[in-house]
Amino acid sequence: MGHPSPRVIRLLSVTQNKVSNSGNFNKSCDICARAKQTREIFTPSINRALHMFELIHCDVWGPYREPSTCGAYYFLTIVDDYSRAVWVHLMAGKMEVP
User: Any residues with CB less than 8 A from the CB of 86 and at least 6 apart, and which?
Assistant: First the structure.
C-alpha cells in the first residue's frame, strides 16, 4: 500500500475542482525514499580464503535515528570469508570500532 504520487494528487485536484491548502505537492516521503534505496552488486571473487580468519570483511553501519534497545546508534558487521560466519557488534558511536 502507499499513497498517490504528486502528479496524481495534482491531477485529482484539477479534475475534482479541489485546491490543496498546502500547495506543496513535491514534499518528499521518507518511507518512499527508503523503499527505493538500492545497493551496488558486488561481483563474486574467484579468490576465496583457504583458512578461517585468513580474510575478513568489515563494515560500519549508522547512525540510525532511533537507538537500539541497548542504546546503539551504529553497528559493525564482520564476515569471515572462509566460513561465511557473521558477527555483529553494536556501538553507541563510531569511536567504539575495535
Answer: 77, 78, 79, 80
Residues sharing a CB contact under 8 Å with residue 72, sequence separation 6 or more, in sequence order: 90, 91, 92
Q: Cα 26 from chain centroid?
A: 22
Grid coordinates of 18: 479541489
**Does pTM top 0.70 for this prediction?**
no
pLDDT score, position 50: 95
Helices (H), the chain: 6-15, 30-35
pLDDT category at 91 given cuts 50, 70, 90 is very high
81 phi and psi angles, rounded to 5 deg:
-65, -35
Cβ 85 vs Cβ 79: under 8 Å: yes
Q: Residue 86: what are its φ and ψ, rounded to 5°? A: -125, 135
Bridge partners, 89 (sequence order)? 76
